[in-house]
Model the fold of this input.
Amino acid sequence: MLVELQEIDSRINKLRTEMEKAPLEVDELKSQCRHVSKEKNVVTEKLGCLQDQDGRLSIEIEDDGVRIKKSKSKLMQVGNTREYHAMMREMDSLDKLNKMRGEEKQALAEELARQQGEYARLKEREDDLTTKIEEKLSTLDARIKDIKEKLDQLLVQRNKAQQAIPAPILGRYEFIRSRLAGLVVVPVEQGICGGCHISIPPQSFIELQKGTQILSCPNCQRIIYWLDHLASAKPEPAADRQVEAETVDSCVRLEQ
Done:
């Protein structure tokens, strides 16, 4: 009876955990989406600055190109060597400046391409997260409703199961369950407790095999049972009341 109750409780806990996690999954996806959106906005600002800088360089290169053409036209009209060399130096300076701007423009183009690739990656990630959020939200209500229905069924089963267990034994089960994580009722196989994996005393193992009282592991205090009892031994209907009375009495002695 205790093993059956514990199985029901395990299923209830699993469903409750699933119901708690369902909205959290959506919240986590939303958090990721916000983070990606912020990164995308940063990249967008970088792209804006780079494009402005690229545009400014293009205008400066174009303006200096016009100035160089004008200087070349005037070069043919120069009347003396001094003016000729002055204009040549000016044209050479403008040409070098434009070359440097051209190199800067090339570096900007490479950075623009890199940032555009990063923007595309972030945009794809944001769209993927948005799709997942929409899918999760579209099924969340139905999923939670299904979990609640299963929980209601299990709670009914639990109520029936606990009614078949004497109050002192049920109280002990609930007491241990409130203080220990994991299983409360564990099997003993080859004299080893299935909860703490430590050998129980030989005399306790002998008493356990008799199956006439509720015993606990002296180390972890979990309720223990002999695995063979669960597999094959079932109390006869005529002996049920006597077994129950002995079990309640033994449980009371243990608590004392």
About this structure: The chain has two domains: 2-163, 167-255. DSSP finds six helices and four strands in the chain. The chain has a mean pLDDT of 83.
